[in-house]
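FYI - complex with iron/sulfur cluster, inputs then prediction.
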Amino acid sequence: MEASLRDELVRLFDTKLSRQMLLNLETCSRCGLCTPACHAYASMPLPKYAPAFRAEVVRRIYKRYFTALGRFAPVLGEAKPLTDAALEELREAAYSCTGCRRCMVYCPFGIDTQQIMSIAKLLLIGAEAAPEILSLLADVSISKGESIETFKEGFLQGIKRLETQVVARWKVEAGTTPIPTEVEGADMLYVALAGAHSIIPAAVVFNAARENWTLSFFEAVNFGAFVGDPGKTQLILDRIVREALRLGVKEVCICECGTAVRVAKQLSGTQPFRVVSLTEVHARYLREGRIRVKKLPGSHTYHDPCQIARNGGVYDEPRAILGRIVEDFREMSPDPKYNWCCGGGGGLVAMGEDTLDFRMRSSRVKADQIRESRADVVVTACENCHTQLENINAHYGLGKEVKFLSSLLADALVAP
Ligand code: SF4
Ligand code: SF4
């Protein structure tokens, strides 16, 4: 590795050294309590998949460049220089971690391996060694924000084509647009993913609840966050913030995409609108009696998306919804905060076939958990989780149906 690149990577490393990060890097006692907590290690017990091992790959570089002992006596200081081989280790550590933070729940010091891995991802970006597909997708999202006029017409035509499917499931009042766009002063801006599955059930429920809503021109997914680029993450989010401010909405509702929910909640800053997940909005409609539902037959279980539940605190709302709309609900885990990660987060699902083999091998414990629930239907509220659960279902021959929570709620609606 050239000295100039090494200097630049050390500079990037330095930008991540907040007080919290220093605690993460300097506190580990190597007790190993986190080891069996990681789904990758629990499914494939190799040392390299232990959370503390992953963190150590970053920690040794930290020691080499940011501690006196590491600088002057690297062997004594367990320090490691930044080399091409070290970059390869960083890549393996970062892209076998989904950022689920299950290890953090078990760590007596609350060490956040996901945060430590964010250093690894940033160094990979600096060395132009991050997964190309994620960087490319992030750039496409950013350029869409810069040239909204060029895709607006095509987007509106596509939305128009979905409206008959919305009305077929829930009749709207005469003069009402089934999928409204560009509504200034709307109460809510709904930010969906590209695809009818993310728009139709949500529109059906909004219309049933007589919500004053408008659909965003942008898709919620944030590839900048997957690749771990703070600048791109913010630029992608800023498109939505600007749109919400322009329309003057009171609330921005993010669709069933765990990372998009977490990023929007954490990084939107102080705004005149609040950010909520679709699941929270649906639970509110039921609580306030704005929609009526029936109970659907069959046994259902719920997979908590890590970014919405463990990393976002939304545990009760999906259970409140399921308690109202299914006859038979079965928990996967006695305490939802210990629910296993699906194994598809952190950009792994977005990397597609390239990661499929690892995703399947590392999700054996999730497959076991689903099987043991004995439920017929696995419900979730995240696009990544849904794709990964479908893959697990096929790979392990579980014979389940995988459904989005929003779609199930739309199926359960009854007329007032
Ligand atoms: S954040 Fe999740 S995937 Fe990453 S090391 Fe911890 S338990 Fe494993
Ligand atoms: S549980 Fe915490 S302190 Fe113990 S090895 Fe894991 S990260 Fe280190």
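Residues 42 and 373 are 18 Å apart (CA to CA). Residues 28-34, 51-52, 106-107, 109, 111 surround iron/sulfur cluster (ligand 2) (CB under 6 Å).
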